[in-house]
């Protein structure tokens, strides 16, 4: 795996977090390099960065004040890891997508897969923009569509594209529109007589995912299962369903994406709910949960990868009490039951349809 890159004559090491066995994956793309090239001669006071997943901009722009807008717990870990690896200052100014930013002079974006998240970034920039605000958004051409241009034109008068370089290109946005655009970028929908809200970019916008619907149609929680973890909780629908079955159940929701966690906090008002933004379960005690429920992730931006999920399953095994259960729903083709059989003695497919399987595992004492 390539981990070295030369920027302005200096060698920088960038590694992925979490680590991957896929040697074709790097911790940066040509899109971020093209952005660096474009801003090289610019004299700016302050830079805001968006969707810098592994910290290339934190590591290369050390001589300038950078504010990093973070979305994923794993992103913060990757940035800190790479700063340390290069003996650079680990003091990063972090803000979330829901914070009000200081004046934005120059914003750098690695265009995310989610068009909604891209719009959320632009709206946040627009709210703190000044006349000379410039946005430089890098993307790999194969992932780009005209919809990104349309969203950009909602917030900026000038929307230009650069020439392509090594299959990457830039979108350069100037002259923020003078109208104020205050619409809250939240999707609201009804499901089974309940209202759900979720910030733009959170999984399954506009409705409850059909895999999750299938899961909740067939799921049963036993009366003695009172400590439940909703792993990869998204908008919190699974945990909310659990508290509706038994209001005394203590539910913990874990998701890597801070906007997912913030959405679940809106959807779940139970006093017995705990919300955690994390990409793993290392901070949870061993043998502490009766049940773990999940519709686990397998897409990471444009990558399809189950390595993260398989490592989460190991964590799940550890934190389950003896005789505790992991019950999950997943696309049938992912064949999780084979992987889970290596960890759990008892693994059963308790329901399936053409697309999804519900798999239940028991941690035998
Ligand atoms: C398939 S969605 C399920 C969301 C929700 N449970 C539902 O049913 O609508 C998977 C979720 O996993 C989250 N995720 C991705 N990687 C994660 C990780 N390492 N740890 C925890 N959550 C993760 C994503 O942010 C996403 O919200």
Tell me what the structure shows:
The protein has 365 residues and is an alpha/beta fold. The strands form five sheets. The chain has a seven-stranded mixed beta sheet, sandwiched between helices. The protein has a seven-stranded mixed beta sheet with strand order 14-13-12-15-18-20-19. A two-stranded antiparallel ribbon has the order 1-2. A hairpin with a 2-residue loop joins β10 and β11. Helices cover 27% and strands 33% of the residues. The protein folds into two domains: 173 residues, Vaccinia Virus protein VP39 (Rossmann fold, 3-Layer(aba) Sandwich), CATH 3.40.50; 174 residues, Rossmann fold, CATH 3.40.50.150. The structure holds S-adenosylmethionine.
Short description:
The protein has 365 residues and is of the alpha/beta class. The protein contains ten helices and 20 strands.
Question: How many domains make up the 3D coordinates?
Answer: 2
Computed over alpha carbons, the radius of gyration is 22 Å
CATH class bucket of the largest domain: Alpha Beta
The amount of helix comes to 25-40%
Q: What's the tally of helices? A: 10
Superfamily at the CATH H level of the largest domain? Vaccinia Virus protein VP39
Structure class: alpha/beta
- Using the 3D structure, state the CATH architecture of the largest domain: 3-Layer(aba) Sandwich
Give the CA-based shape. globular
Say what the CATH topology of the largest domain is. Rossmann fold
In terms of DSSP E residues, the strand content is: 25-35%
């Amino acid at each position: 795996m390539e981990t070295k890159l030369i920027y302005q004559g200096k060698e920088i090491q960038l590694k992925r977090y979490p680590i991957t066995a896929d040697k074709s994956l790097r911790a940066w793309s040509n899109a971020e390099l093209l952005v660096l090239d474009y801003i090289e001669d610019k004299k700016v006071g302050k830079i805001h960065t968006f969707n810098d997943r592994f910290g290339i901009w934190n590591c290369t722009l050390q001589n300038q004040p950078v504010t990093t807008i973070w979305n994923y717990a794993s992103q913060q870990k990757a940035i800190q890891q790479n700063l340390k690896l290069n003996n650079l200052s680990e003091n990063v100014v972090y803000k979330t997508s829901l914070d009000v930013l200081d004046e934005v002079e120059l914003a750098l974006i690695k265009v995310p897969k989610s068009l909604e998240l891209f719009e959320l970034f632009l709206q946040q920039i627009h709210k703190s923009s000044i006349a000379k605000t410039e946005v430089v958004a890098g993307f790999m051409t194969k992932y780009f569509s005209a919809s990104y241009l349309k969203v950009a034109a909602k917030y900026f008068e000038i929307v230009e594209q650069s020439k392509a370089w090594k299959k990457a290109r830039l979108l350069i946005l100037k002259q923020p529109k003078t109208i104020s655009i205050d619409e809250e970028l939240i999707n609201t929908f009804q499901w089974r007589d309940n209202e759900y809200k979720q910030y733009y970019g959170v999984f399954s916008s506009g409705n409850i995912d059909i895999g999750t619907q299938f899961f909740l149609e067939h799921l049963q929680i036993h009366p003695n299962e009172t400590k439940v973890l909703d792993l990869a909780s998204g908008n919190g629908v699974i945990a909310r369903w659990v508290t509706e079955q038994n209001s005394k159940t203590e539910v913990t929701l874990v998701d890597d994406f801070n906007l997912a966690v913030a959405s679940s906090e809106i959807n779940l008002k139970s006093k017995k709910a705990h919300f955690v933004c994390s990409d793993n379960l290392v901070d949870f005690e061993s043998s502490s949960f009766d049940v773990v429920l999940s519709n686990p992730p397998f897409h990471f931006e444009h990558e399809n990868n189950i390595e993260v999920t398989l490592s989460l399953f190991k964590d799940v095994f550890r934190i389950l009490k003896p005789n505790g259960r992991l019950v999950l729903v997943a696309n049938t083709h992912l064949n999780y039951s084979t992987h889970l059989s290596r960890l759990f003695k008892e693994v059963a497919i308790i329901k399936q349809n053409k697309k999804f399987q519900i798999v239940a595992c028991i941690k035998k004492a």
